UniProtKB/TrEMBL annotation:
<dbReference type="GO" id="GO:0016787">
    <property type="term" value="F:hydrolase activity"/>
</dbReference>
<dbReference type="InterPro" id="IPR046879">
    <property type="entry name" value="KANL3/Tex30_Abhydrolase"/>
</dbReference>
<keyword id="KW-0378">Hydrolase</keyword>
<dbReference type="InterPro" id="IPR026555">
    <property type="entry name" value="NSL3/Tex30"/>
</dbReference>
<feature type="domain" description="KANL3/Tex30 alpha/beta hydrolase-like">
    <location>
        <begin position="24"/>
        <end position="165"/>
    </location>
</feature>
<protein>
    <submittedName>
        <fullName>Alpha/beta hydrolase</fullName>
    </submittedName>
</protein>
<dbReference type="Pfam" id="PF20408">
    <property type="entry name" value="Abhydrolase_11"/>
</dbReference>
<dbReference type="InterPro" id="IPR029058">
    <property type="entry name" value="AB_hydrolase_fold"/>
</dbReference>
Length: 203
């Protein structure tokens, strides 16, 4: 594991690089709104990705690096993420397909920035379809805006709602709630099976 800081328009972001023996692609993963990169589902996805030959960058947003728990506005999150993408894509992951991903808020950032950032695929862990108890405030447009292959791994009892699959979007339900802590092996299995399919598209 290698740690580095990346300058962004909203302060430094912190990045943990986990390199695979065979670099077939690179996965950038963002954390949830009030959490960090040690979330169980992010750990599981990182281990599965590196085993599949995918480099992983765990990205800590500037507001978390600064010690704040309350998330920055969406436009700041997206701008900081794209700055990290530009840096890593040029310096560390040149000529590799980039997969954007994250859990919860990080998954939303990955979806919103997939097109401008040139993502080849998107991995969403616990995508917050709507605030708990407020299905009328849907965020499905962020998922629907993707035109690249996507996987959503969602807890069966997630109070933030359940996304629907589509032509390019797979949805896998696993035991547990929004935290995706109940069955890390199920998360790993879902991510691993998806990598086995999606990486063939890049060969």
């Amino acid at each position: 594991m290698t740690g580095l800081q990346v300058a962004t328009p909203h302060g430094p972001a912190r990045v943990e690089l986990h390199c695979a023996e065979e670099g077939r692609a690179a996965l950038l993963l963002g954390h949830g709104a009030g959490g960090g990169v040690r979330a169980p589902d992010l750990v599981a996805a990182t281990r599965t990705a590196t085993a599949a030959g995918v480099h992983v960058a765990l990205v800590e947003q500037p507001y978390r690096v600064a010690g704040r728990r309350a998330p920055a506005p969406a436009r700041q999150l997206d701008a900081a993420w794209l700055a990290v993408v530009e840096e890593l894509g040029g310096q560390h992951f040149a000529n590799l397909p980039l997969i954007f991903g994250g859990r919860s808020s990080g998954a939303r950032v990955a979806c919103r920035t997939a097109d401008p950032g040139g993502a080849s695929a998107v991995l969403c862990l616990a995508f917050p379809v709507h605030p708990p108890g407020k299905p009328e405030k849907s965020r499905m447009s962020e998922l629907d805006g993707l035109d690249v292959p996507a996987l959503v791994v969602q807890g069966e009892r997630d109070a933030f709602g359940q996304p629907t699959p589509s032509h390019e979007r797979e949805v896998v339900l696993v035991p547990g709630d929004h935290a995706l802590k109940a069955d890390a092996e199920a998360v790993s299995h879902a991510v691993g099976e998806w990598f086995a399919r999606v990486l063939r598209l890049f060969d």
